[in-house]
């Protein structure tokens, strides 16, 4: 009898041990063969799955006396009624749930808390932000269908990339702060115009004139050079001849009333131009430079009362327009258009009493890419020309030896050499307190009338407190607003005036700087 009791007690202890620790053993040794007991079979089949942030309700047939859960960080168990238990998923993971019933029975559950789809996607988003932006504290939170980005990034590109990454989950609200960027780079462009124009001309011509030889008054020539002007006699006087050019060989026989002029001239012209404009501009901004002036020219305009002439102005001189751009490679891309123009009165014309000069222009427009300090010859010209003109009188010029008197010859040789070189440099401002460069004035100016040098009173006089230190970060929208282009600088200048037909044209205007495009004033009717 005692032996039977011992066997029965041993059997009961074995079943209890298996019921209490069976789930732990299964978790440690997955795939192990489960013992054939009712309690363990119940534990293995009671698998419970719940998502993070979700709840599951368990219905029991008997009243509940006690509830225990293995990890309260993973899930939470709450007895809502005598026969119902609420399981709330808190974090992804696995844990165990034991429920004691009033009759002494126990229910075992393997609880698996799975991450919700939104939580998993947010976790993936935070991981990608941490990988793409190391060292930049960016946090992402989700509320309803919105993704909120907070933190600080180093530049606008990082902000744009973070928004693009987060936009895969929904609409993004960008609340990021951006480090205040340093001052943009300043680019100094040095341009050198070097031009040499040389002209050599030779002119040989003959003119014969008569003041009464063979009772004939007149001139004979090839019109290659100006002949003497012969006037008819008045009363008892004789005919006279007037020379228009003193640089001629003049011969006259009074007894024959016959003379001749010979022009044998050689001229040389030399024009040298060296202009070196330097212009400073911010990265990506356009800059222009003009050292020269404006010359007037008439513009015919119709009005209700008739036709009038409006005087407009055109710029000339040394001009430079360019846009520098720093590339990711560290080079400088230049859109540059240098120009040198000068007044050319030789090829000008006169209209209604106005002398309008022509313009001699040398212009280059191109786009190049250079490293800092490198130079490019963006324009060059070598032009050699020779012009020969032969004028002669038919038949008479074909007479041997004497025919040379009825021929004129002119030879002109021209040589033009032009070169334009550009050199960009990245520069910084002159530090405060450093001696500034000055020009060397040959003559001294008048002394100042005031005994106090011109300066701005300090804060102790004006009462204006200096601003605090510059912020290190600012909201993204503030930075974008500060980077918007400013209103363009408009320089107004008088570029046109109203004049009458005839008269003297206004003198050209000279100066240095930029000017607006020519405009037209209302026309005036002629008198």
Structure description:
With 527 residues, this protein is mainly beta. The protein is built from six helices and 27 strands. Strands 11, 12, 15, 16, 17, 23 and 24 form a seven-stranded antiparallel sheet that branches. The longest helix is centred in the N-terminal third of the chain and has 27 residues, at 2-28. It is rod-shaped, with a radius of gyration of 50 Å. The protein starts with a helix and ends in a 15-residue tail after the last strand. The model is unreliable at 1-6, 8-44 and 494-527 (pLDDT under 50).
The whole-angstrom Rg is 50 Å
Based on helices, strands and strand pairing, what is the structural class? Answer: mainly beta
Catalogue the unreliable spans.
1-6, 8-44, 494-527
Strand proportion? over 45%
How helical, in percent, are the residues? 10-25%
Output mean pLDDT.
Answer: 77
Q: Sheet bearing the most strands, described? A: 7 strands, antiparallel
Summed up, the helix count is 6
Number of strands: 27
Shape: rod-shaped
Distance between the ends: 152 Å
């Amino acid at each position: 009898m005692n032996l039977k009791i011992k066997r029965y007690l041993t059997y009961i202890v074995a079943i209890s041990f298996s019921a209490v620790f069976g789930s732990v053993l299964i978790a440690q040794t997955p795939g192990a063969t489960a013992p054939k007991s009712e309690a363990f079979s119940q534990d293995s089949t009671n698998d419970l799955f719940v998502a993070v942030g979700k709840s599951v309700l368990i219905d029991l047939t008997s009243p509940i006396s006690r509830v225990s859960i293995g990890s309260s960080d993973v899930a939470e168990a709450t007895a809502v009624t005598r026969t119902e238990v609420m399981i709330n998923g808190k974090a992804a993971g696995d844990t165990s749930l034991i429920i004691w019933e009033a009759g002494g029975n126990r229910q075992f559950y393997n609880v698996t808390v799975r991450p919700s789809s939104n939580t998993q996607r947010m976790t993936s988003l935070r991981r990608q932000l941490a990988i793409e932006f190391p060292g930049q504290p960016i946090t992402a939170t989700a509320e309803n269908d919105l993704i909120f980005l907070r933190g600080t990034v180093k530049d606008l590109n990082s902000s744009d990339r973070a928004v693009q990454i987060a936009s895969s989950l929904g609409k993004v609200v960008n609340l990021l702060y951006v480090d205040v960027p340093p001052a943009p780079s300043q680019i100094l462009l040095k341009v050198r115009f070097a031009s040499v124009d040389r002209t050599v001309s030779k002119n040989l011509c003959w003119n014969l004139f008569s003041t009464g030889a063979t009772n004939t008054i007149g001139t004979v020539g090839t019109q290659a050079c100006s002949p003497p002007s012969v006037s008819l006699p008045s009363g008892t006087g004789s005919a006279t001849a007037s020379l228009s050019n003193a640089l001629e060989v003049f011969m006259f026989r009074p007894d024959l009333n016959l003379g001749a002029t010979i022009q044998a001239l050689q001229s040389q012209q030399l024009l040298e131009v060296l202009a070196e404009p330097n212009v400073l501009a911010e990265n990506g901004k356009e800059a222009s430079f003009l050292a020269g002036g404006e010359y007037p020219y008439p513009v015919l305009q119709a009005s209700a009362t008739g036709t009038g002439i409006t005087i407009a102005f055109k710029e000339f001189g040394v001009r430079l327009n360019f846009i520098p751009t720093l590339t990711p490679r560290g080079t400088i891309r230049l859109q540059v258009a240098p120009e040198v123009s000068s007044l050319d009165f030789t090829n000008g014309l006169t209209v209604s009493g106005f002398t309008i000069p022509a313009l001699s222009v040398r212009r280059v427009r191109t786009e190049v890419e250079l490293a800092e300090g490198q130079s490019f010859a963006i324009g060059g010209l070598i032009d050699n020309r020779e012009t020969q003109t032969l004028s002669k009188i038919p038949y008479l010029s074909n007479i041997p030896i004497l025919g040379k008197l009825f021929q004129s010859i002119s030879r002109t040789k021209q040589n033009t050499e032009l070169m334009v070189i550009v050199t960009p440099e990245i520069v910084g401002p002159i530090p405060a307190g450093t001696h500034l460069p000055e020009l060397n004035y040959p003559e001294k100016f008048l002394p100042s009338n005031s005994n106090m040098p011109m300066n701005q009173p300090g804060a102790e006089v004006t009462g204006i407190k200096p601003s605090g230190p510059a912020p290190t970060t600012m909201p993204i929208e503030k930075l974008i607003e500060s980077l918007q282009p400013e209103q363009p600088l408009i320089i107004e200048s008088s570029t046109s005036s109203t004049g009458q037909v005839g008269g003297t044209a206004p003198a050209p205007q000279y100066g240095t700087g930029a000017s607006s495009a020519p405009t037209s004033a209302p026309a005036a009717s002629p008198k």
